[in-house]
């Protein structure tokens, strides 16, 4: 594994350079899978000096059904929450990153652009845009104090980052106030110095100060203990470029022209009444989405403000489409994807891979397969190179048929200070984190 421990193929994980242009389901006994299972089992045996001290499901407790579901530790009185920040090594200092400031936003953007998640072979690195970061970090009720940076005291250079945003997450029939933790990043030159645990403790402290005691996060690394482990699937939209940059390979017995033909899509969506979501649709989309998400074990509890923020289209950040019945004008179906490009490292011809990531999709009248094919069509028209989707919710019902190929990376989902008795099936998960 590389220094960030991220296999390719998931969002903390990044594009899959191994998926074949002619996607085939992965063989479980492939060397790659055997190696991964071995690494995962090593990771289970591994000591986690930091994570062993935290209120998270511990590996030793896996399968112990006598432990109750819910908070692992009760909240402590706010007066007992540490009032001062944790100590950093003396050359560094804490900073709160004001994402409204163009200058700070640029610094965060550049730190992540140069140091955030890469695939195992260091061919691609996430390149979250500034607009995306502003969107991801300023949802309704966000706290500036949860956008935490570390600077070098002398140069003032930003060298590390971690963020939280507030969310209501439903676990079975309990709606829990949580922080969604993301964008943990330590500059490449400062790795393996145990800075990450200090950053995690500091964000935890600041979340506690707001009287919030649970969190949700994802990672490409195995930590104690995933609530579920998802796989990324990739649908080529621009197969020639994907092959040229090493994201995918030409399938056996395939030529480039046959591959291009295989992935060709119609010019226009097929569903009558398929259109972009608008502000006036917020109530109907909220209703549709709440109904739909209620069937999953873990999902966000979105209200209209959340839907307006997270799902109303924002150029180059998030796209949402819906089906308005031409007859009744009812909003019957919905699909969305977010924009997350990756830098292509060391390629002569291309520097950016434009990727769309499936977000929340709801079908009540239009078959999900047809809805998602329409999503692929609009993504292709917007010049995305690839459309990625996790095997969460009902996504498995369309992945193979719509010519998605399985990625070789995994994305692990975690809850902090909340125990789930048994790991979930990926189809029981109704949560997509950015
Ligand atoms: S996931 C994205 C993470 N970012 C990257 O992969 C970018 C590239 N990599 C880096 O910048 C560094 O390698 C990072 C680690 C910063 C990841 N999540 O400082 P260290 C543990 C949690 O010496 P470094 C995302 O953003 C590791 O197991 N822990 O290591 C969600 C070890 O602990 P232990 C991680 O490589 C983040 C310790 O850190 C991760 O220099 C959710 C080593 O520290 C990871 N991705 O830095 C954070 N990677 O010994 C948790 C390594 O015990 C939030 N480690 O094994 C928890 C909830 C908090 C709020 C609670 C509120 C109530």
Automatic annotation (TrEMBL):
Keywords: Acyltransferase, Transferase
Region (Disordered) residue spans: 1-31, 55-85
Ranges of biased composition (kind: Basic and acidic residues): 14-31
E.C. numbers: 2.3.1.97
Class in the EC hierarchy, top level: transferase
Catalyzed reactions: N-terminal glycyl-[protein] + tetradecanoyl-CoA = N-tetradecanoylglycyl-[protein] + CoA + H(+)
InterPro entries: Acyl_CoA_acyltransferase, NMT, NMT_C, NMT_CS, NMT_N
Source superkingdom: Eukaryota
GO molecular function: glycylpeptide N-tetradecanoyltransferase activity
Entries under SUPFAM superfamilies matching the protein: Acyl-CoA N-acyltransferases (Nat) (SSF55729)
Gene Ontology, cellular component aspect: cytoplasm
UniProt keyword Transferase, yes or no: yes
All copies of domain Glycylpeptide N-tetradecanoyltransferase C-terminal, residue ranges: 244-422
Domain Glycylpeptide N-tetradecanoyltransferase N-terminal: 71-230
Role, per record: Adds a myristoyl group to the N-terminal glycine residue of certain cellular proteins.
Family the UniProt entry places it in: Belongs to the NMT family.
PANTHER family: GLYCYLPEPTIDE N-TETRADECANOYLTRANSFERASE 1-RELATED, N-MYRISTOYL TRANSFERASE
Name of this chain's protein: Glycylpeptide N-tetradecanoyltransferase
